From TrEMBL:
Comp. bias (Pro residues): 107-120
Ranges annotated as biased composition (Polar residues): 97-106
Signal peptide as annotated in the record: 1-24
Biological source species: Mycobacterium scrofulaceum
Protein name per the record: DUF3558 domain-containing protein
Keyword check for Iron: no
Disordered: region residues: 24-43, 97-122
Highest rank taxon of the organism: Bacteria
Keyword Signal included in the entry's annotation: yes
Keyword line: Signal
Length: 173
C-alpha cells in the first residue's frame, strides 16, 4: 500500500509541476510563442495527437496489454494522452505543453522560491521521480510518466527516458 500512496503523491506533484510550467509565460499569461498569433490562426491550428506519438508496442511492452490512449486535451496547441491497464491501474501519461515554454529546446530553470525535487537526466531532461521525466522538444516543456509498479524507480525512469526520446522528434514547434 505504501508504494501506491507514493505513486499517487508523485503523480500529483508531477501534475502540479507540469501545470505550473505549462502556464508560465509573460505577465499577461500569454505564451511568448503564441502571443503574436492571430486568434483565427490559433483556432484553426491542427490539434496535436499525442496518442499517436507512441506505438502500441511501446505501450504494451510496459503495461503488459495493448490499450488505446485517451486524450483529454482541448487546446489544439497542446496535447496529452494517457494509457491505462484497467486490470492493474498502471499507466503511461504524456503531456505536450504550450509552444514557447522551452525556448531553443532547453528546459527553463526551476521556478525560484520553490523546492526543486528534480534530478538532471540525459539530453537536458529532468527526472521528476516516480518514472516521470520532463524534456524539451518543439520549443515546449513536455512530460512523460511511466507508472508501473513492477518496475523499480530506476527502471521506470529509464523507460520514461526511452519514451521521451521516441516522442521528441514528433513534437511540433
Amino acid at each position: 500500500m505504501t508504494n501506491v500512496k507514493h505513486l499517487v503523491l508523485v503523480m500529483v506533484a508531477g501534475c502540479a509541476v507540469a501545470s505550473c510550467q505549462s502556464h508560465a509565460g509573460t505577465a499577461s499569461g500569454q505564451q511568448g510563442g503564441s502571443a503574436g498569433a492571430a486568434p483565427s490562426e490559433r483556432a484553426t491550428a491542427k490539434p496535436i495527437d499525442a496518442c499517436s506519438m507512441l506505438s502500441p508496442q511501446d505501450i504494451s511492452g510496459l503495461l503488459g496489454v495493448t490499450v488505446q490512449g485517451t486524450s483529454t486535451g482541448k487546446d489544439p496547441q497542446m496535447g496529452d494522452c494517457s494509457w491505462e491497464n484497467p486490470a492493474t491501474m498502471e499507466s503511461i501519461s504524456l503531456q505536450i505543453s504550450n509552444p514557447g515554454t522551452a525556448r531553443n529546446n532547453t528546459l527553463p530553470p526551476p521556478e525560484a522560491g520553490f523546492p526543486d525535487p528534480s534530478k538532471p537526466g540525459p539530453d537536458g531532461m529532468r527526472l521528476l521521480g516516480g518514472g516521470q521525466v520532463e524534456f524539451a522538444a518543439g520549443n515546449r516543456v513536455n512530460t512523460v510518466q511511466v507508472a508501473v509498479l513492477k518496475l523499480s524507480s530506476d527502471q521506470a525512469n529509464s523507460a520514461a527516458i526511452d519514451l521521451a526520446r521516441k516522442i521528441s522528434p514528433q513534437v511540433p514547434t
